[in-house]
Specification:
mainly beta, seven-stranded mixed sheet, four-stranded antiparallel sheet, 0% helix
Length: 112
């Protein structure tokens, strides 16, 4: 069984920064592709950023140049550095491992 846990959400003013972290642990014997999704109230869940086992990254157009996804030092950990945050970035952010395992989500609120 695999557990996925996010951390690092919170309240930040427009233009500010936050760093989210995710760790997938449990019965994992290899490295997995990791992804960050988000879901705003009344909207569908959308893919924000992804990173492959080999380190290739991909971003939604709405966050390109502002967000950076990177792997942590430990196996199957991933961070999301979010800069120049906008009110429209407000959402619950979810980490996904191996296109299968989901975390509970962490709230990010961008507001003055």
């Amino acid at each position: 069984q695999v557990q996925v846990m996010e951390s690092g959400g919170g309240l930040v003013q427009p233009g500010g920064s936050l760093r989210l972290s995710c760790a997938a642990s449990g019965s994992m014997r290899s490295f997995y592709n990791m992804k960050w999704y988000r879901q705003a109230p009344g909207k569908e869940r959308e893919l924000v950023a992804s990173i492959t086992v080999g380190g290739s990254t991909n971003y939604a157009d709405s966050v390109k140049g502002r967000f950076t996804i990177s792997r942590g030092d430990a196996r199957n950990t991933v961070d999301l550095q979010m800069n120049s945050l906008k009110p429209e970035d407000t959402a619950v952010y979810y980490c996904n491992a191996a296109n299968t395992f989901w975390g509970q989500g962490t709230q990010v609120t961008v507001s003055s």
